[in-house]
Amino acid sequence: xxxxxxxxxxxxxxxxxxxxxxxxxxxxxxxxxxxxxxxxxxxxxxxxxxxxxxxxxxxxxxxxxxxxxxxxxxxxxxxxxxxxxxxxxxxxxxxxxxxxxxxxxxxxxxxxxxxxxxxxxxxxxxxxxxxxxxxxxxxxxxxxxxxxxxxxxxxxxxxxxxxxxxxxxxxxxxxxxxxxxxxxxxxxxxxxxxxxxxxxxxxxxxxxxxxxxxxxxxxxxxxxxxxxxxxxxxxxxxxxxxxxxxxxxxxxxxxxxxxxxxxxxxxxxxxxxxxxxxxxxxxxxxxxxxxxxxxxxxxxxxxxxxxxxxxxxxxxxxxxxxxxxxxxxxxxxxxxxxxxxxxxxxxxxxxxxxxxxxxxxxxxxxxxxxxxxxxxxxxxxxxxxxxxxxxxxxxxxxxxxxxxxxxxxxxxxxxxxxxxxxxxxxxxxxxxxxxxxxxxxxxxxxxxxxxxxxxxxxxxxxxxxxxxxxxxxxxxxxxxxxxxxxxxxxxxxxxxxxxxxxxxxxxxxxxxxxxxxxxxxxxxxxxxxxxxxxxxxxxxxxxxxxxxxxxxxxxxxxxxxxxxxxxxxxxxxxxxxxxxxxxxxxxxxxxxxxxxxxxxxxxxxxxxxxxxxxxxxxxxxxxxxxxxxxxxxxxxxxxxxxxxxxxxxxxxxxxxxxxxxxxxxxxxxxxxxxxxxxxxxxxxxxxxxxxxxxxxxxxxxxxxxxxxxxxxxxxxxxxxxxxxxxxxxxxxxxxxxxxxxxxxxxxxxxxxxxxxxxxxxx
Length: 762
Prior knowledge:
Residues 1-22 and 547-556 have low confidence and may be disordered. The chain is 67% helix and 8% strand.
């Protein structure tokens, strides 16, 4: 039994014994005090997240401490990349501190409120029983004494908790202020670095000092490593989820290729597929998967630090070396290895901040070597490669940047020269990797298409060449985006470009009274395009073929496809309108204007659209039915929202507006329980025995596949001449698709039978 229940129970007993009533105010105060004590105990168990925040604050301090030391030690830092990376670290730390400060402020207010209530109750005279008290309170003396002790204990614990939270809040606020100062310093230096990017930062080459830098190369490398290592540790800790998704995607690519190779080796498919010969793809695509991983890395981390990009591209160089080693000639191998050595030397020299003549001459020598390698690469890059049109401008840009790096170095702009040089080299390595990446994915797709086509899958119903061309265009587009992303990141302008693009896309614009942004327009267009593309291709999932078939008989497909297409279009339009940001009242205005347009010149379009909906629900024919409309005969290939497609016997495709299908008379030759009566005209001698002809006709028709056995062929006399009789033969068949073939077979059989029976045809 709880103390409050004990009090109530004892009060009830005492009331019965004394005949006195219990004061309501006293009971209310006792209940309130007990509630406050319970709330304080619950809050103490919860802990307000102090342990977690204290540990996180220690990590933040450890993270920003080296940044502060570096900024103080190098007062004239002009490396824009390092400053940008430090800014990322500080921004993330500031975001955490802001969240913690908000949490601690709320906790501080809550604890202060509880403490105020405890103090108020502790000094409340109503809860104090004096020795000479003659009121009803003397019956609650024990309970009030216990309650007072509990309030004192709760007050001490609450005061201690408030002191802890207040100190932690002050520490968080102080750290936040420190980070704000560091951010201000970094912003000032970034601005200064941007302003002085094209200004002279060192002496001209012919005036450069011949003395070596104060720090040796190993010491400079160690200092650079420590700074970049902090950046990488922060990056991996804050972006592990994106890296996990990248690894997962790479694993899926490996499983996809490995499983397809395993499927292709099955006896049922091996005889159809034959030997597989791919240039880059292997049955166990370990190296290929690594190439996919390293090429897609920038896409999953568009705001990654430049050192991360440099390491990823160097790993890409190593994997490309393994992958292409056997394809290189002996001369190409030496040139490729020389490019790797130059890349390592360039990375090492970038760590040295000095205007020494020897270091600058070394950089110029590396730039000259890269110029030579770029010219060789331009001459040997195959013109038939898929990215050749993109490769030519990239190589020209590479040569231009290396030339500019030499000139900038000569005229004292060392930092900019280093940036341009390393960006050009990484761009060329990435270009090679992306070329192999595209070939890999296209070969994996070709393997999938081959297996699917042989197994009768979805790729057996599509235009393979068109599909491959579409995928190739998409891959080249992704490759261009990846290359530009890495290039701008290494130049240090990626964030500026992202911010500019964000402002352009999100800036409100006005068209009359309608407000919109470019991002709304792009979202609207993208959703409409994707919904249109989906409704065109959705039939492939239901067995609808886009390729002309040589089969005479096509199994009818349900017209549910047209209904699905209608749903996709309506959903796409609604989603596009929602993405456009147009409010409902503005949209009604647009609908009104659209109604006027329909009334003026879009009647036919609306009529065909409504007719398509009628066709969906009435189902006068289905996909695959053989119909006759006016002077056209053929089978229905597609039932669309606005128009339908008919494939004629001559192989031509006729597009018929749905309004014509509703308004005109249609003959459906392949509806349920419908059989076709085909006719043949014969001329025989007047002396011929018609009974013999009937018997021969019945015998030959009974042996034909596709002719109805339960319906006797009919023979009619249509004309009589002096020496001839014209006969009409009518035979019932199962399908109109076999009419021509059955006629040919029947005439061939009758010709042989008539010759054997000495019946002369005229």
